[in-house]
TrEMBL record:
Residues 477-488 have a biased composition (Low complexity). Gene3D superfamilies: 3.30.70.2760, Hypothetical protein af1432 (1.10.3210.10). Pfam families: HD, HD_assoc_2. It comes from the Eukaryota. This is HD phosphohydrolase domain-containing protein. Residues 55-203 form the HD/PDEase domain. GO terms for molecular function: dGTPase activity. Keywords: Hydrolase. The lineage of its organism: Eukaryota, Fungi, Fungi incertae sedis, Mucoromycota, Mucoromycotina. One of its GO terms (biological process) is dGTP catabolic process.
Length: 495
C-alpha cells in the first residue's frame, strides 16, 4: 500500500483492491497513531496464514479499505439525495467508524475472541467490539484528537450497528446500515474483506462490490438496492460462505487454531495475556507477536507453550480425525454437550489407551451471515419505475437454484496425539451410533441417518502406513522407531 504526501488537503494511497484512495486529514490523524498502527501486526486471516501463504495481509489495510468504501457510499448519498440532509459530521464519523471498527481485535483475532478468552476467563462478558470502544477512547485521549464526546459515541454506535439513543436517530437509521448492518448483514466491512481475502488467496470473487455501491439508495430510512442486484446479493453471501467453507474453517487451519489456543493458555498464567483486555496500554502491545515472545523466552514457566510452538513450526500439528455434517433434523440432538472428549474416550477399544486430553471436539457453524435465515429476505429493493418505494423479493422470483438451507453445523474431532488418530476415529463413530442408532427420519429431503464419511474413513493398516512413512522421513529402522508418552516424535503428515 503506497502513500503520497498531502495534496489539496488529502493524502493519496494506492490500494491493491480499490486503487488510489484519498484520505482526508481527519482520517490520517487517526491512522498516524500507535493505536491504529498496531493493526499492522494483526493478520487478517489469523491462523489461515499458516496454511495459505498468500493470506499475509493485515487488518491495517482492511480497515483503511472499509473506511474508503464507507466514505464512498455516504458521500454519494449526500450528493445524489440532498433531501437526506447528511452533515459533514456524519460523513466524518462514518469514515472513522469504518477505519476503527477492528481496533479491538486481539492476537490472531477470532482465535483470541472465540477460543482463548472463553477458556482463560470463563464467564467474563467480553468481546472485541468492547475492546474496539476501549481502544478508540484511548486513541483519542492519547493523541489529543479534536473530537467531542457526541461524535465519539456516534462512531461507537456506527461500529456496533445500533444507536444507543434510538429517539435521537429515528430518522437516521440508514447511517447504521453502512459499516455493520444488523438488519441484513450487507455492509462495507464484508465488501472489503471478501474481495481482499479472495485476491490475496488467488481466488476470484463472483460478486461485484462496485455495482452494489452504485445501485443503492436510501428509501424509508434504510439502504435499499435496485431490484436487478438481487442475484448479486445472493452471490455476496455465497462468496462469504465459500470463503468460510474453503479457507476460514480449513481443517489444518483449525488444528493450528487449537494449537495456538493451547500455547496461549499455557502462557497466560505467566504473561497475564487475558488480563490485558482490561487495560488499553497493555492491550496496545498485545498482537500476533505474542507467539514470538513465547518462543524467544527462556523461562522454564513457558516451556509447555514453547513446546507447542515448536510443534507448530516443525509441522508436527494436531491432527484432524473425523467430522460429521449434522443433518438439520439432528441439530438439537448431536451437540458438543453430548459428544464430548470424555464420551468418545468411553467408547475406545480395549488396548487403545485413550485419554481425554488426546481428544478435541469442535463445533462449527457456516451460514449466510444470519444464522439459519435467508438474509436476502431482509433486504429491501426499489425498481426502475419507482425509486421512492421499497419491497422484498422472495427467492422463488429469483431462481429455483438458490439453497433451501442457509446454515450448516459440523462436529469435528481433532487429536493432540497423531499416533491415536485411528483409535479416536473408531471411538467417535461408536459414539455417534450410540447417540442416534438406526434411521432417525428424514428432514426436507436430507437423510438423517448416522453414516460415516467414506472419504475420511482410515484404512485398517493406517497405523502401519504412518509408521512406515515416518521411518522413511527420519531414516529410522523398525527397531529404532519409538514414541515417548504416547506422543510420536518427528511426526509430520500433511493432511
Amino acid at each position: 500500500m503506497n502513500s503520497q504526501a498531502f495534496h489539496d488537503g488529502y493524502k493519496v494511497i494506492n490500494d491493491p483492491i480499490h486503487g488510489h484512495i484519498r484520505l482526508d486529514e481527519s482520517t490520517v490523524s487517526f491512522i498516524d497513531t500507535v493505536q491504529f498502527q498496531r493493526l499492522r501486526d494483526l493478520k487478517q486471516l489469523g491462523s489461515a496464514y499458516f496454511v495459505f501463504p498468500g493470506g499475509s495481509h493485515n487488518r491495517f489495510e482492511h480497515s483503511i479499505g472499509v473506511s474508503h468504501l464507507a466514505g464512498t457510499l455516504i458521500e454519494r448519498f449526500e450528493k445524489e439525495q440532498p433531501e437526506l440532509d447528511i452533515t459533514e459530521e456524519e460523513v466524518r464519523c462514518i469514515k472513522l467508524a469504518g477505519l476503527c471498527h477492528d481496533l479491538g481485535h486481539g492476537p490472531y483475532s477470532h482465535i483470541f475472541d472465540n477460543e482463548f478468552m472463553p477458556r482463560a476467563k470463563n464467564g467474563l462478558n467480553w468481546s472485541h467490539e468492547q475492546a474496539s470502544e476501549m481502544m478508540l477512547e484511548y486513541l483519542i485521549d492519547d493523541n489529543n484528537i479534536d473530537i467531542d464526546s457526541q461524535q465519539t459515541n456516534l462512531i461507537k454506535d456506527l461500529i456496533a450497528g445500533t444507536p444507543r439513543s434510538q429517539s435521537q436517530y429515528d430518522d437516521r437509521g440508514f447511517l447504521f446500515d453502512i459499516v455493520a448492518n444488523k438488519k441484513n448483514s450487507v455492509d462495507v466491512d464484508k465488501f472489503d474483506y471478501i474481495e481482499r481475502d479472495a485476491l490475496n488467496l488467488g481466488l476470484r470473487s463472483s460478486f461485484d462490490t462496485k455495482r452494489l455501491l452504485l445501485y443503492s439508495r436510501v428509501v424509508d430510512n434504510e439502504i435499499c438496492y435496485h431490484h436487478k442486484e438481487v442475484y448479486n446479493l445472493y452471490e455476496l453471501f455465497h462468496s462469504r460462505y465459500s470463503l468460510f467453507k474453503r479457507i476460514y474453517t480449513h481443517r489444518v487451519g483449525k488444528a493450528i487454531e487449537l494449537m495456538i489456543t493451547d500455547a496461549l493458555l499455557a502462557a497466560d498464567p505467566h504473561l497475564n495475556i487475558s488480563s490485558a483486555v482490561h487495560n488499553p496500554e497493555d492491550y496496545l502491545n498485545l498482537t500476533d507477536d505474542i507467539l514470538r515472545s513465547i518462543e524467544r523466552s527462556k523461562s522454564s514457566e513457558l516451556a509447555e507453550a514453547r513446546a507447542i510452538m515448536k510443534r507448530l513450526r516443525t509441522r508436527q500439528l494436531y491432527k484432524f480425525v473425523d467430522e460429521f455434517l449434522v443433518p438439520p433434523s439432528l441439530v438439537d440432538k448431536v451437540t458438543t454437550d453430548v459428544i464430548t472428549a470424555q464420551e468418545i474416550v468411553s467408547h475406545q477399544g480395549d488396548n487403545d489407551g485413550l485419554d481425554i486430553n488426546d481428544v478435541i471436539v469442535s463445533k462449527g457453524k457456516i451460514n449466510y451471515a444470519m444464522q439459519d435465515q435467508n438474509p436476502v429476505d431482509s433486504i429491501r429493493f426499489f425498481s426502475k419505475f419507482n425509486d421512492h418505494g421499497s419491497f422484498t423479493i422472495p427467492k422463488h422470483h429469483v431462481s429455483y437454484m438458490i439453497p433451501a438451507q442457509f446454515q450448516e453445523v459440523v462436529i469435528r474431532i481433532f487429536t493432540r496425539n497423531p499416533a491415536k488418530v485411528q483409535a479416536i476415529q473408531k471411538a467417535f463413530r461408536k459414539t455417534l451410533r450410540t447417540i442416534c442408532p438406526g434411521d432417525v427420519g428424514v428432514d426436507d429431503g436430507v437423510d438423517g441417518r448416522i453414516e460415516p464419511n467414506d472419504a475420511l474413513t482410515l484404512p485398517n493398516d493406517f497405523d502401519h502406513i504412518m509408521q512406515a512413512n515416518k521411518r522413511k522421513r527420519t531414516g529410522l529402522s523398525s527397531s529404532q522407531d519409538s514414541s515417548d508418552g504416547g506422543v510420536v516424535k518427528n511426526w509430520s503428515v500433511n493432511m
